[in-house]
Amino acid sequence: MNKHFTLACCTALLLSPLAQAQNGGPIRIGLPVPLTGPYGAEAKDQVRNAELAVAEFNEAGGLNGRKAELLVRDDKLNPGEAATRALELIEKEHVNFIVGGLSAATQLAVNNLTRQRKVLYISISQSDAINEAADFSRYTFHESLNPHMTTQAVGNFVFRKGMRIAFLTADYAYGQEMARGFRRVAADKGAIVVGEIKHPLGAADYSTFLPRLQAMKPDVLVFNNFGRDNQVSIKQAGDFGMKKTIKFVTPVLTYTARTSAGAQVYDGVVGGSAYYWSMADGTPSASAFNARYGKANGGALPSDYGSMAYSAVKSLLMAVKAAGSSDTEKVVDALAALRYDTYKGAQYYRACDHQSVQSVLVLQSVAVPARPADIFRVLATAPASEAALRSCAELGHGAAPAAVAAAK
Amino acid sequence: MEGITLELVGLQLFTGLALGAVYVLLAVGLSLIFGMLTIVNFAHGAFFMVGAYAGYAIYQVLPNFWLCLVAVPLAVALLGMASERLLVRPLYGRGIDYPLLLTYGLAYVMVELVRIGFGKQGLPVDTPALLQGSSDILVGQFPTYRLFVIGVTVLVLGGLWLFIERTSFGLIVRAGARDPQIVRILGVDVGKVWLIVFGLGTGIAGLAGFLSAPMQGISPEMGGSVLTVAFVVTVVGGMGSLVGAIVAGILVGVVESLAVLFFPEAAKVSMFVIMAVVLLVRPQGLFGRAGLMS
């Protein structure tokens, strides 16, 4: 009888995550990512990377013996689903922190929820909006590159005075933000934007847009789209013989897109990236990260979008250690003050918008890789600098109290 | 509209024709099945997708594009016939919504099976070496492979026309589309005819998928958007009319392509505008017979 009672008590205790947290149970990190859908490959690599960061934290003894654990959820690349999963992670699973989101729309949906609930959230995909005052909160962190800094780095490298630039743009937040960034850097460099054609997200055929783009006689054609759309539109433009006279540029050249579309399709295409494994030459944290990832994944190399998840979870747990607690307010302060070098050199979060200040690589896809892994060549590295970001004032930070005062 | 030259219009027209060719292949199969069996085949897009994956799989063991070009439609037709025989047939005579729901579910099953077998991520398909690059077609450079797709479509349609107009089996098909009851009374095994027609329709859808693969790569979801287009084309042309499917397919492709010159944002919507107008003016479609759905 007594034994049964104890057992019941233990079970009740185990079943209640709240009780666990109060008793110094594991530090729980929620990870909503689109495991199913067109970004599935990237999302799965994000899970592998986040697991690696958690494993390292636990092997090093955790937070005075308190271990971390990861709760992965599929957001299906749908903002509504992402918000539901995030809410469930907060309310039912009582997670301490949330990391994730692999589209501009899903990350904004999650952020909207986490800032209401005062839960620390680190976003790991491109967005400009999340930096802006309207979407920002003290609990919002952005580990990924943003479209502005990506297009600055790529545009500064590719654009020249008098060059004719045309855009093929996916008609949603990602494409629009990239196009806006490229327009700005084109104006700075004296290049001429000769035209833009917008296509719906997830189009299967781009052939009808291509003669029109060709007739604009551009020197550079920028593909402001992502994932499958990026692969298919670049392939079809190549089929139309456009590569003979036009340089192909895309804001983000991803490891997964290039490996799934093949060397021929991406031959010569230039684009930006947060990470490429060869940057390990001269960056100790990158070579250490490559080695650890390879050991855990049968010798494979980490991908750009995947490694961001590693860095986000790793830096979060560094902040937990620095704060000596899993208390949200303390960890937010510790993370905002953290100087970290998790996988690509020094990074830190800018005070006003919690955007990670970091280097941006400009890559070119190689036609005939010497080894299967040598798919890109690093053309340039834009150093980590706040000058590459839009100013705090432009984003609306700090200006708000003044505006209120002026209104009065 | 600055910058619109005669060459550009010509090139857009040709692009639309190539786009229309794939639409025609899809709609012909859909229309054939509907006209004959009165089945609205919601799995048509899935057969298109299976055609693309079958091409990918067969190419792994038999790396010859031309053999695949023959083998894929046959393989998909066999799959289509098996579906008709085992799944659709028990539902004949139960009203139009039964097979509709069945094929709708079948599409989900096929997509999931392909996801399990080949992964959720899409796969790249290379254009055959002989058809790579672009050719000069007087108005500008045009992908050689798309010219080839137009050619194959013309051949398939020619073959289909001969089959339906010049063979005794075609005569039964035409008669069956008119009045299956009378054909059955005349002692024709309608079941066998339906089996073959279902195989023919799905086989052509599979061929369209196989031909599309080098242009857009393959993914388990590729049949979804294509199904919408196929339905629009079939409705515009008239449910059950082969000539309608051909004319409407080319019309939708060419209008979509030319719309890019004037209203690029509206290009994808143009087909729905055509459909709305046709439904208002001629509810049975351009070449359709009134009352077929009732």
Task: Give a topology summary.
The complex is a heterodimer of chains A (408) and B (294).
Chain A: H1 2-15, H2 17-22, E1 27-33, H3 40-59, E2 68-74, H4 79-91, E3 97-100, H5 104-117, E4 120-123, E5 140-142, H6 147-158, E6 164-170, H7 173-189, E7 192-199, H8 210-215, E8 220-224, H9 227-239, E9 247-252, H10 255-261, H11 263-266, E10 270-273, H12 284-296, H13 304-323, H14 328-337, E11 339-340, E12 347-349, E13 356-357, E14 360-365, E15 376-382, H15 392-395, H16 399-407
Parallel strand pairs in A: 1-2, 1-3, 3-4, 4-5, 6-7, 6-8, 8-9, 9-10
Antiparallel strand pairs in A: 10-14, 11-12, 12-13, 14-15
Chain B: H1 6-37, H2 44-61, H3 65-88, H4 97-118, E1 134-136, E2 141-143, H5 144-166, H6 168-178, H7 180-185, H8 190-216, H9 222-237, H10 242-262, H11 270-281
Antiparallel strand pairs in B: 1-2
Helix pairs in contact in B: 1-5, 1-8, 1-9, 1-10, 2-3, 2-4, 2-8, 2-9, 3-8, 5-6, 5-8, 9-10, 9-11
